[in-house]
Structure formats: structure tokens, C-alpha cells
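help with this record:
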Amino acid sequence: MAADPDTPLFSPLYRQIADLIVRNLEQGEWRPGEAIPSELELAARFRVSQGTVRKAIDELAAAHLLVRRQGKGTYVATHAEERTQFRFLRLAPDLPGDAEERPVRRFIDCRRMRPSGEVARALDIPTSQAVFHVQRLLDFGGRPVVLDDLWLPAALFKGLSAERLSAWPGPLYGLFESEFGVRMIRADEQIRAVAADDVAARWLEVPPGSPLLSVSRVSYTYGDRPVELRRGLYHTRDHHYRNSLS
């Protein structure tokens, strides 16, 4: 049955507290990598029980917004952490022994441009607002496996350049988080099988027409605001797309 639009929706108290914590994160009160107040301090602040705060923190930890550290407290999650560095990269090697393999990035281009209508709609910006278009390759074991195209709102990433991207030693989302204050907290993906065109075939070193996996992703920051459109072409000869469902 459809909900009556004139009837207020009930939200459990712990979820209301979780929303308040997220609002504080969005406002920058606690930055990525920093500890948040203890459960007792938050309970006093929000005038609720410690159990309610604990349940709210559990939910935000499950959403990878917070990280519990045994004996140390709760911290704002960061893409610089080992456990979250490649959380949005769902590509896994077919051979279990290659599970620890880390991709090597090669940036092809980074330029400021006007977005197409499709890109502007995905990022929820007008076509008059500039974006950065980034192209890169991900190599696994010395072989090109992923060809990525990224579009980012230029207003949020002022000063982005190919040199800055290439000089950054960590994950790309870690750069966005620490240097530009833009944290990716969730993403929507669409996946389909495609044939390699001449450009993709050249970069991925496969014959034109080879089967590839196309992954189109829109990443969001706080407030469900889209801040990145990414289209990747995956060569899955030795890799597969992995996901866990529950």
C-alpha cells in the first residue's frame, strides 16, 4: 500500500541520531581520520541513552562512514585506510594467489571542458558549468585491465591537473578527500557487456571487437550529492567483477 503523503513517516530514534552525526560530518566538525566523541559524550550531547548512540554508530560503521578501533574509539572513515582504499573497485583476479595484487595507475589526460548534456544530468549541474575530464589506465601485473573516464565538477576540484594526479601516491578518492574536501560515501553502478572500439582496443591491448565489461558509476557525497561520473571498460580475461550480497 502506498503511504499517505499527509502522514509523517516514523524514524527510529537511533536513525535520527545517525542523521545528526552525518550532518556534523557534512559540516566538517569531524574530518576524515579524526576521532569522534565517545558514546557517553554523544549521548549527553543529544540527550539520549548510550545504547541509542551505539546503535546509530553501528549503522554508520556498517555504511563505512565511521570506523571502530578496538580500545581506541570511533573514527571518521577515510579512503586512505587500507580496508577502504579499493572499496569501490570490485575487480578481482581469477587466481586466488593474485588477490593481493594492487593496480598501478597511468594517467592519460586531465582537461577542463564543458560537459555534455548526459554528463551534466548525471552530475546534476548545468551544461554551462565546467567539469574536469580525467582518463587513466589501471594495470594489473603489468597488463592494462581497466580504462577509466571520469568527469568531476570543476567547481569542487579547483587546481586539479594531470601532474597533481600523477604525483599523488595513494588512492584517487584519498586525493579527493584530503586535498579537495570531497568524500565519496556511496555509488550507483550500471554494468553491461560491450565490444571494444578502436580506442579502447588500443589502450587495453586487445583486438577491436573484444568483449569488455562496461561499468558506469555515479558517486555521491553527503546529502546524496553526485560528485563523480565514472565509466570504466574492464578487460576480464584474467579478472572478474565481484560483489557480496546480503
User: Anything to note?
Assistant: The chain has seven helices and ten strands.
